[in-house]
Amino acid sequence: MEKVTDGLIAMIERLKPFLKEGKSVLLPIYGRSMRPFIIGGEDKALLLPVKSPVEVGDIVLAWVDGRRYVLHRVVKTVGDSVTLEGDGNIIGEEHCSQADVVAKVEEVVRPDGRKKNLVSVAAMRGWRVWMALKPFRRIMLKAFSVLVLGEPVRQKKQQRT
Question: Within 10 Å of residue 42's Cβ, how many Cβ atoms?
Answer without folding.
Answer: 14
